[in-house]
Amino acid sequence: MLITVRLDRDTEASLSRLAGRTGRSRSALVRDAIRRLAEEEPAPARSAVPTFAERIAPYVGSVDTGGGQLSERSGERVRQILGERAGSRRSAENVEGPAATRPAGPRGRPQIAGRRRRASRQ
Question: pTM, whole model, 2 decimals?
Fold first, then answer.
């Protein structure tokens, strides 16, 4: 990677003298100086706010599925749950009466119990 560094005259003169004395290139000396400074630099302080991974670490692997492979038949399980929910809605409709006997809403459709009508926009 190429990088350009602006040096004042004194620093440039010092760098050139050091390169002449050691037989190393000015680029090699600059790379070495940067590497040394980076090694001396203390590690950055940790953030006071824990990361998401740190927050959930105590819980990872703590749930026992009983050996079941939950992801193998997940689509089947979702269909089952949705079917159960739809069945409970149908049961609630039957208790309240069929939808056709309820008064029609603003668009001519039967109103569904438990839902509020939106105020019409004008």
Answer: 0.37
Tokens 């509020």 identify what position? 116
Residue 86 CA neighbour count, 13 Å, CB half: 6
Q: Determine the Cα angle at 31 with ends 27 and 36, to 5°.
A: 150
Other C-beta atoms closer than 10 Å to the C-beta of 4 total 4
| For residue 33, pLDDT beyond 70 | yes
Helix (H) / strand (E) element for 31: namely helix 26-40
Give the residue from 5, 8, 33 showing the smallest Cα distance to 19: 33
Residue 93 CB neighbour total at 10 angstroms: 15
**Eight-class DSSP state of 99:** G
Calpha distance 99→90 (Å, rounded): 10
Amino acid 65: pLDDT: 66
Structure tokens belonging to residue 90: 């149908």
Strand partners, 110: 104
Residue pointed to by tokens 């492979």: 69
The number of CA neighbours under 13 Å toward the Cβ of 81 is 6
